[in-house]
Amino acid sequence: MSTLAHTMMTAARSVDSGLVGPGELDRYPYTEASAVDRVGAPVWDGAEPELGRVGRRAAGSRGRGLHGQLVQQLGQMIVSGDLGADRPLVPEEIGQRFEVSRTVVRESLRVLEAKGLVSARPNVGTRVRPVSDWNLLDPDIIEWRAFGPQRDDQRRELSELRWTIEPLAARLAAGHGREEVQQRLSDMVEIMGHSMGQGDALTFSRADSEFHGLLIQIAGNRMLEHLSGIVSAALQVSGGPVTGCDRPTESSLTHHARIVDALGAGDGAAAEAAMRQLLTVQPEVERVVPAPREH
Fold first, then answer.
1. Pairing relation of β-strands 88-89 and 118-121?
2. Rounded to 5 degrees, what are φ and ψ at 14?
3. How far apart are CA 128 and CA 117, in angstroms?
4. Which of 44, 100, 235, 267 could form a disulfide with 104 if both were Cys (CB 3.0 to 4.6 A apart)?
């Protein structure tokens, strides 16, 4: 096993045990906590059901402090429908019920406004916006939808979007990758293979996420590169075998390796075909998009 694989495996285990050293995770741009880490909701005396249904996340679980926690909670409540469209959001009420300062509330509402979830207008106040106004490509909104009532639609839509983005990225990336990038992709495949043998799903998913993100980044298309965060979010919140990347298997590993080989040979058509095969490994995807035809 390569030094990189060993380092990455160690880092993943450290995250699970809470023993991560200072700066250790900076080497890998992975999410700090999954949605399954959320904790149950406390009861606020006199709170309306809509404002008490989503509980606080563990302090610092996303590394954003009170501001990030409030954005997370309000965002989840809006996306889940607990706070419906045109619902007024009164800063004073939010601050009291979530026990945060007016400054924290104000900054949190600004973040939600940038995501298209709320709007603030003079003499009207802050209100929840309809789904048609949301930035559905925002990674946070992807996560909130994936773990809310819209989970099935979100995962299907992500699968369809990946089917559109990634085969094209694989074709364009052929011949674009420098030697060190090619080696990095090979390292990710090695890490996935080793972690699969060890039953280490966390390390597998992190290497998989880096593989796909790097592939899009080397495609040479800045607009596609801008969408790499969507693919990363899709891999992190899939929550089920909606693509061949979501359940470590020998078949999945084989297709990743085929993509690397095709990229190294500068064969865009083969890279695209391998990616399409990867995205149809699981039967759930075959109900979303047709499997590639045999020629």
1. unpaired
2. -65, -35
3. 6
4. 100
Q: Could you read off the pLDDT of 21-80 as tens digits, one per residue?
A: 333 323 333 233 333 333 333 233 333 433 333 333 333 334 468 889 999 999 999 999
Contact of 174 with 273, CB cutoff 8 Å: no
β strands within the chain, DSSP E:
88-89, 118-121, 125-128
- CA 151, 152, 153, 154 dihedral sign is positive
Q: Is 65 left (phi over 0), alpha (psi -120 to 50) or beta?
A: left
CB-count exposure of residue 113 (10 Å: 0-12, 13-18, 19+) = middle
pTM over 0.70: no
Gap between the Cα atoms of 110 and 68, Å rounded: 12
**Assigned token pair, 262:** 């095709």
